[in-house]
Amino acid sequence: MNSFSSIVEFVNGIIWGKNIIVILLVGTGIFFTLKMKFMQVRLLKDMIGLLVKNEKDSESGISSFQAFCVSTATRVGAGNLVGVVAALSVGGAGSVFWMWIIAIFGAATAFIEATLALIFREKDKRGDYVGGAAFYIQKGLNKRWLGLIFVAFAMICWSGVLQVISNSVTDSFRVAFGMSEKIMSAVLTVLAAVVIFGKKDKVVKVLEKLVPFMAFIYLLLVAFILVKNIAIIPQVFKKIIEEAFGIKQAIGGSFGAVVMEGVKRGLFSNEAGTGSAPSAAAAAEVDHPAKQGLIQALGVYVDTLVICTATALVVLVTKESVIQGLTGMELLQEAFRYHVGNWGVIFIAFILFLFAFSTVLGITYYAKPNLIFIADKDLLQTAFKIFACFMLFYGGMKQASLVWALADLGLGLMAIVNVFAIIPLSKHAFNSLKDYEKRLK
């Protein structure tokens, strides 16, 4: 196990430690942004309008809003809570700024990969739309072997993520209620199993209701806390900007950590450029590929600019003495306790459970088309669902740095394969956007 951990850490040290992923994703996002003339800013009104309009279901696909909910379910997860706290702990307030940057440029990348997913999608043996990174790699680049490698990296990432989010939930319930990790792991696993082993559309229908609800109640309490601390909000934003470019950080040698943590946790949360969200986008029943691309780009904004920022601001308006020496969920729960009393600890345990539960469902939905890419066999789907339940139960009882490292490794390798696919294929998405804008006029 030690030798395996060493290999994982060594590879992560290259792709993350040497900023390869940072340069790749930010560079790609900037390239797409300039090529599409800041589409993610110009067409923001259209993004919101398309989501509200919500294309209707068909027998072959799900609605645009349902596809948005599935991808948002995995984006809005433990990373919005634990990941943001980790970024603040290591990179300080300045890391929040770099989360914003990766979100703005990442929205352009999210548009490209989601649009490509619709252009290159196909139907499975049941007549449902399936697609995603593996499919556009095979059909667009004619490289099935590379698509299979992408699926392998995705499985590594998702196995790590399932354990991370389960452990975060059991940890928060231990702090809030003194509940045993084993009991909470079992509860989360059983509830997940009931949904993922249910009827065909059960995951989508649950997420369609759960995602808006959990985002609303979380942002409602955060809004209350921020209004209560309105006087110090300007100082907090000043601190974020100062530390993002701070001379003190540069002299102390921590500037790289500030940027790195912001970008890494921003990416881990919003997934732009990793090739995972296109798995949900491909199933959407819309009359133009660019429409779902715009909706998926909006998902990056919702995740990072809204929910991640909300978490960061709650921590940053908390007295440092209250959270000093704390990490992870314990830090966040103490921050909420400081602002709203003891029930804040219970609230965060509850909201993390919802975030984590939605992520689990989203991952099982993502896995479906990727497994179909390997072979359209029901047995393969069932095997993954059993594996996912095992990862949930095991992860909730055992905390290990290797799990975070595995999630980072899989995510980084997915991003590398995906980016090298979407750059040459991006001309198809550019043409789709031009056609869409022409129709608008």
Largest sheet: 2 strands, antiparallel
Order of helices and strands: HHHHHHHEEHHHHHHHHHHHHHH
Class from helix and strand fractions:
mainly alpha
> Strand-residue fraction?
under 5%
Ends distance: 60 Å
Shape: globular
- Helix proportion of residues, in percent? over 70%
Taking strands numbered 1, 2, ... along the chain, how are they ordered across the largest sheet?
A: 1-2
Number of strands: 2
By DSSP (H or I, 4+ residues per run), the number of helices equals: 21
Based on CA atoms alone, the radius of gyration comes out at 20 Å
Oligomeric category: single chain
Write the SSE topology.
Elements: H1 2-15, H2 20-35, H3 39-42, H4 44-53, H5 64-75, H6 78-91, H7 94-119, E1 122-123, E2 129-130, H8 133-141, H9 144-177, H10 181-196, H11 202-228, H12 233-244, H13 247-251, H14 255-270, H15 278-281, H16 289-316, H17 320-323, H18 328-340, H19 343-374, H20 378-397, H21 401-440
Antiparallel strand pairs: 1-2
